[in-house]
Amino acid sequence: MSYDVAKTDAEWREQLSPLEYAVLREAGTERAFVGKLTDTETEGVYRCKACDAELFRSETKFHSGCGWPSFYQSLPDTVEEREDNSHGMRRVEVLCKSCGSHLGHVFPDGYGTPTGDRYCINSVSLTLEDAQGNRVAG
C-alpha cells in the first residue's frame, strides 16, 4: 500500500530512536507498564510519533490494566487494521493510515466501553498534544 508520508529506511532511522524504529517500522512492542503515556490523563490529541497524524482523542482513552495506552476508538479514517498471525497468535494489527507505521493491536475485549474495542497502542509510537496545543509527551 502507498502512504501519504513515505520515507526511505535511512530517513526513518535518522528520525526515530532505535526503540521507536523497532516498534513503528518493524512492528515491535515496547515492554508493558514502561511507556510515558500509559497512565496519563492529560486531555488532548494523540498523534503518530512518525508522521504527526492525529489518531486518538483523550476522551476515548481508558485504563484497561494491560500496560499500554488503551483507547476504545480511533479518529475516523486515521488507522488501518489488518490481520496479524505472527507469533502463533491471531490478532488485528493497527497501523497509521498516513505513514504505515505499526501502532499496536485492537482487541474485542474493551468491556464497558461504547465500542467494546480496546486499541492497545505502544506508548512509544505516540505523542500527546494537550488542549492548548502544547506537546506534553512523546
Explain what this protein looks like in three dimensions.
It is a single chain. By secondary structure, the chain is mainly β. It has a single domain (9-137), classed as Metal Binding Protein, Guanine Nucleotide Exchange Factor, Chain A, CATH 2.170.150.20. The protein has two helices and ten strands. It has helices at residues 9-15, 18-24, and strands spanning 44-48, 54-57, 61-62, 70-71, 79-84, 91-96, 102-107, 118-121, 126-130, 135-137. It has a six-stranded antiparallel beta sheet, with no helix packed on it. A hairpin with a 7-residue loop joins strand 3 (61-62) and strand 4 (70-71). The longest helix has 7 residues, at 9-15. The chain is globular, with a radius of gyration of 14 Å. The mean pLDDT is 94.
Q: Which properties best describe this structure?
A:
single chain, 138 residues, mainly beta, Metal Binding Protein, Guanine Nucleotide Exchange Factor, Chain A, six-stranded antiparallel β-sheet, four-stranded antiparallel β-sheet, 2 helices, Mss4-like_sf, peptide-methionine (R)-S-oxide reductase, Met_Sox_Rdtase_MsrB_dom, zinc, peptide-methionine (R)-S-oxide reductase activity
